[in-house]
Amino acid sequence: MTEPTDIPGSQPQAATLTSRLTRTRLPLWISLALLLLWLLTLGWHSLALSRAEAQLEKDREAMTSQFEVDRGTLLGQLRTRMADDSDEAQRQLGMALAWAVRGEMIRNNLDQVDQFFGEIVKLPNTERVLLAGSDGKVLVSTDRRHLGAEATTLVAPELLLLPQVTVRSEADGSRILVVPVMGLNTRLGTVIVSSRQADPLSGM
């Protein structure tokens, strides 16, 4: 009795089937690996975005709180420096004012700037405070008639181009404080503070 022999051609067929299975599984594993990698990347991106948003909100709250503190300090400095007639005191005032207005312009909070200017114009000898935007239009002014007007109809055009805080004395004895408000790469606007000549009889 002879032992059974393999069916002719069965071994090549098995090898072919194994080869096909191998070729079928390899793309599947690659697809699974790519899918896993994509899910990990998506999860990491979502986590990073959530953290960035949380940090942004935290920074915004901190800036708001800090501005409220600095706003009170700045107003105190305003009262002191407006009484100091020196150009250096006025320039220091302008630099502090530029910082405060810049923060509110970046947050697009012109109402806060308007309230701030309303307090400044109450200081001794201050006549008018306005903010001209980068397009030359008056965005905020203590004189409501000037809102939306071309700033060049109210002040000399060259004042809107000055690159740094400048104190300019006029022929009538009045004074103009020019405060450029700068963003990271562009000029956001210009604050103009007009002060009348102090009355020596009133001490103001």
Q: How many domains comprise the coordinates?
A: 1
**Overall body shape:** elongated
Beta-strand residue fraction: 15-25%
Give me the count of strands.
Answer: 5
Strand order of the largest sheet: 2-1-5-4-3
SSE series: HHHEEEEE
Helix content bin: 40-55%
Task: Using the CA coordinates, give the radius of gyration.
Answer: 35 Å
Quote the distance from N terminus to C terminus. 132 Å
**Average pLDDT, all residues:** 77
CATH class: Alpha Beta
What is the fold named in CATH at topology level? Beta-Lactamase
- Main beta-sheet annotation: 5 strands, antiparallel
Q: Could you provide a short overview of the structure?
A:
This protein is 51% helix and 16% strand. With 204 residues, it is an alpha+beta fold.
Topology:
Elements: H1 10-83, H2 87-106, H3 110-120, E1 126-133, E2 138-141, E3 166-169, E4 175-182, E5 187-195
Antiparallel strand pairs: 1-2, 1-5, 3-4, 4-5
Can you tell me about this structure?
The chain has helices at 10-83, 87-106, 110-120, and strands at residues 126-133, 138-141, 166-169, 175-182, 187-195. With 204 residues, it is of the alpha+beta class. The chain has a single domain, classed as Beta-Lactamase, CATH 3.30.450. It has a 5-stranded antiparallel sheet. Helix 1 runs antiparallel to helix 2 (87-106). The longest helix is centred in the N-terminal third of the chain and has 74 residues, at 10-83. The model has no long low-confidence stretch (mean pLDDT 77).
Which short descriptors sum up this protein?
Beta-Lactamase; 204 residues; 5-stranded antiparallel β-sheet; alpha+beta
